[in-house]
Amino acid sequence: MDQLVMSMLVVTALLTYARMSTSSDDDRLLVNMTVVSSAGALEAYCLDGSLPAYHIHLGFGAGANNWLLQFEGGGWCNDIESCSERAQTRRGSTLLMNKLETFSGILSNNASRNPDFYNWNRVKLRYCDGGSFAGDSKFDNGTLVLYFRGQRIWQAIIEDLLPKGLGLANKALLSGCSAGGLASYLHCNNFSSYLPDTTAVKCLGDAGFFLDSPGINMLHTQRIFFQNLVTLQGIEKNLDENCTSSISDPKQCIFPQYLLKYITPPLFILNSAYDVYQFHHILVPPSADPDGHWNRCKLNPKACGPDQIRLLHAFRVEMLTAVRSFLYNSSRGGVFINSCFAHCQSESQDTWFALDSPQLLNETIAESVGDWYFSRNVSKKVDCPYPCDTTCHNLIGAV
Ligand SMILES: *[C@@H]1O[C@H](CO)[C@@H](O)[C@H](O)[C@H]1NC(C)=O
Ligand SMILES: *[C@@H]1O[C@H](CO)[C@@H](O)[C@H](O)[C@H]1NC(C)=O
Ligand SMILES: *[C@@H]1O[C@H](CO)[C@@H](O)[C@H](O)[C@H]1NC(C)=O
Ligand SMILES: *[C@@H]1O[C@H](CO)[C@@H](O)[C@H](O)[C@H]1NC(C)=O
Ligand SMILES: *[C@@H]1O[C@H](CO)[C@@H](O)[C@H](O)[C@H]1NC(C)=O
Ligand SMILES: *[C@@H]1O[C@H](CO)[C@@H](O)[C@H](O)[C@H]1NC(C)=O
Ligand SMILES: *[C@@H]1O[C@H](CO)[C@@H](O)[C@H](O)[C@H]1NC(C)=O
Ligand SMILES: *[C@@H]1O[C@H](CO)[C@@H](O)[C@H](O)[C@H]1NC(C)=O
Question: Which listed ligand is nearest to 260 at the C-alpha?
């Protein structure tokens, strides 16, 4: 699927651009990698057969018994070709990953940058399976071996963390962005099953609410993409059974919109209604725009014509429709859906909590998530349509 690879590169470039504009490098928190050596016994391997890993920064003070787990994101691979390519990159092998990871935004240990979670135990789960930590199968034709063991990686990491204090957590939050945001939706119930009833367990999906929506060519590109992913990686058996038993195509339960009503712990949906990934891959996948009419608009919303803006607004309405029942009827849920051309707003400092961060009703994302987690206030906020929001950090590509 070079289509995905290509557009992944675009998003990566945009995210790199966003990161460059964040706070100074000298006081960054760098956290060393922990390889999960016990994972071998579970055959919990990365695509290439390497051992999975996480980064942990211990909590302190009042947060010492609270745990935040965050899934790393980074697209998916859904056929042998793309997975064998991925296995030779940092997205498919911990051997090729940076060993020191920057903890910023929701992972920051600085109260001025992360007011509610700075003193928690914070763990970043590295993503090396290409299937949102949910697959369980293997490809082996004699010359090429690929492990699709995301679900086992999840299990191995949890079982490694439980005796390190997670098993005695007072409060716990499962988070993640993009493919990691999807993982957070997919694993929320399972996370809670590992923890005692006395632990307050909640989940946050950032930019993981991928819509089952047709693109401008009326084709369901993401649905087909996910169907191939679920089949290749053996994900179906790990999808929520309440969902799979009540839908005509069980594979559809990988979409958060169908899974939503079966997620038991309190959940926070953080997403942009104009999520850049979804804009570029679901609404206008490259295959739907062979002549590149959308290229300028994709790089800068100010360059979008009225017809393009109309289609973007319609996509926003679809997103709001998909969360409508949750928005009105979930008493313990939180929602922050802004109208920014963004993708992942909890991990980078400038969108999570800074003087000029995106806001809704005068609150940053960090404050809204904190209000929800600690039940300080109802925290359900939906933005007005683009371009009304002046607090956005829109990802603008090089023209
Ligand atoms: C990271 O951990 C490895 C393995 O434990 C160790 O060799 C290395 O020195 C550590 N690096 C830093 C910067 O702490
Ligand atoms: C904490 O963050 C504030 C605000 O960004 C900054 O001024 C301060 O230097 C940071 N403290 C540390 C120890 O990095
Ligand atoms: C195994 O699969 C790879 C990738 O599809 C292919 O290049 C290779 O030729 C296959 N090997 C055999 C023995 O079929
Ligand atoms: C959670 O996931 C693990 C690992 O896949 C599995 O063994 C366990 O049965 C799951 N628990 C529940 C309650 O689904
Ligand atoms: C899922 O199914 C189980 C077993 O039928 C049931 O006990 C549970 O309440 C269901 N959960 C949801 C959220 O529907
Ligand atoms: C909320 O739940 C009630 C009762 O189940 C239902 O009648 C109503 O349509 C729901 N509202 C939305 C917006 O889904
Ligand atoms: C937001 O805060 C500003 C400055 O504190 C205030 O003037 C404004 O009325 C507030 N707006 C809302 C919607 O609360
Ligand atoms: C709770 O939220 C409402 C609406 O956003 C706001 O007006 C109010 O000031 C908030 N209360 C507190 C205690 O933050």
Answer: 5
